[in-house]
Design goal:
The protein is α/β, with parallel strands linked by helices. Strands 3-2-1-4-5-6-7 form a seven-stranded parallel sheet, sandwiched between helices. The radius of gyration is 17 Å and the shape is globular. The chain contains eight helices and seven strands, in the order E-H-E-H-E-H-E-H-E-H-E-H-H-H-E. The protein has one domain: Rossmann fold (3-Layer(aba) Sandwich), CATH 3.40.50.
């Protein structure tokens, strides 16, 4: 049920962080992974990582906020790989400022990348998946869609939107055999959260004190959930949000 041999997956923002962790899971399960991101050098390094795991991976540069760039990504993927089975919408940014200090352009930058980018990629992938008789879309949200981040209102709003977008797409495309789900990461050790720990005094200690697992997550914690949601094991799972947070959101 978890074998992805012969499947082709696009992972936006797949050249680092949670995206790379998910890409590694898909690669180990047999998928051919397309690393789609802006930083070409970083993407090429990720491709080398995935090829070492046995995946015939490749990198395609994309700007998920640009409609033409997104459409070109899908077209090039199908041209080079023959098909598109799996899409992971992981590309995202965060600007850590309280609402009264956040400029409109900063708000729009976060929303365009995190939410509109996922919409554009999903919409562009849809006809290719439909032509195959089905597909899998995995959105990367955040536990900030559950909690209210005072230091990141645009990020929280964008990730809340991702949850609702997931539900809408899942309902709209169920008859096309396309399952759409969202993963809600907790506190994970990435470049983004390292910067947050530098800015927010005591964050590391508070996270560890609240987490039942007693640790921060790491990117490889997301390999399994990615494989599950990308495989035939989850054919009757759609429109759902799955926290991967070491129990953080379950603590009263």
């Amino acid at each position: 049920m978890f074998d992805l041999t012969g499947r082709v997956a696009i992972v936006t923002g797949g050249n680092g962080g949670i995206g790379l962790g998910m890409a590694r899971g898909l690669a180990k399960a047999g998928a051919r992974v397309v690393v789609a991101a802006r930083n070409e050098e970083k993407s090429n390094a990720a491709v080398r990582d995935l090829r070492a795991l046995g995946s015939d991976s490749l990198a395609i540069t994309v700007d998920v906020t640009d409609e033409r760039s997104v459409d070109a990504l899908m077209k090039e993927t199908v041209k080079r790989c023959g098909r598109l089975d799996i899409l992971i919408n992981n590309a995202g940014i965060n600007i850590q400022k309280p609402a009264h200090e956040l400029g409109l352009k900063e708000w729009q930058q976060v929303m365009d990348t995190n939410l509109t980018g996922a919409f554009l990629c999903s919409r562009s992938a849809y006809p290719y998946m439909k032509s195959l008789g089905g597909g899998k879309i995995i959105n990367v949200g955040s536990m900030m869609s559950i909690f209210g981040p005072s230091h990141a209102p645009a990020y929280g709003a964008s990730k809340g939107g991702i949850v609702q977008l997931t539900k809408s797409l899942a309902v709209a495309w169920a008859n096309d055999n396309i399952q759409v789900n969202v993963v809600l990461p907790g506190w994970v050790d990435t470049d983004l959260t390292r910067r947050a720990r530098e800015k927010i005094q005591g964050l590391n200690e508070r996270v560890l004190a609240r987490s039942p697992s007693g640790r921060w997550g790491n990117i490889d914690d997301f390999a399994g959930v990615a494989v599950f949601l990308a495989s035939t094991a989850s054919m009757f799972v759609t429109g759902t949000a799955i926290p991967v947070d070491g129990g953080y959101s379950s603590v009263a």
